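Task card 7
Instruction: Convert sequence to structure tokens.
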Amino acid sequence: MPTFSPEIEMSLLQQAQTRFRILSETSVPELLPQQKHQIRQGERAIAQLLSQYERFLYKQIHRLCPGADIDAAFSAALKGFSKAIEGFNFATPFMSWLKIKISGALLCEKRKGAVSTIKNFKLTQILQNEIGISDTATFNQAIPQIQEAIEKLKDVERLCLRLFSEGNAWAEVGEAVGKSPDAARMTVKRAVLKIQIELGLVEAPKRKARKIRRTPAPIFWMQSYVRRSKEGKVVRFSGRAFDIKSTFQN
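Output:
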């Protein structure tokens, strides 16, 4: 979420909108030096806004297009981001307006088929080392099985595994899916374990039998009381009377 104040955000949005307006009204060869300066300011403002809302874009991608190709989905989200800035009227919160535009852009591209399911997952050297297959020839033979195992993963596991295999740091992987670096590392570790199980490299962990603690039932679940009588003490257990003199030898 934005770390700068609303006033700075409004100023950046105005600079970005000035850039869009100049480029739409004037051709590039006819730009004046002042207009070129305003365009550069607008580009810097767009870059600052994107750095603040990049994580929000990835969250929307993961929510609306789970399992999608991250490059195609992010390109579609950037189109929505540009439209949100260009058409913002400063009457509503920018976050709400941005969410509408990004959602529309992602769903539109999804209908067109531009945001497709990950099929050609990049099997990099990093992923090969993580799976534990040192021989390149053996790894190439197992590629169909690896891709089939990747398709069976959860969306968040597949996305984290892809970002990790591309060499991103754990902080970047976690930021893309809204997790901490440690949580992203554990997600990748679970995904790799599932792939190794599918390939037969490791055995599936056996679930430990749940120990049920059984407490032996008491012999008597009854109340007792003692009353005195002329004959002596009488003990009653659940309504049955026992003479202490005849039952217990003192």
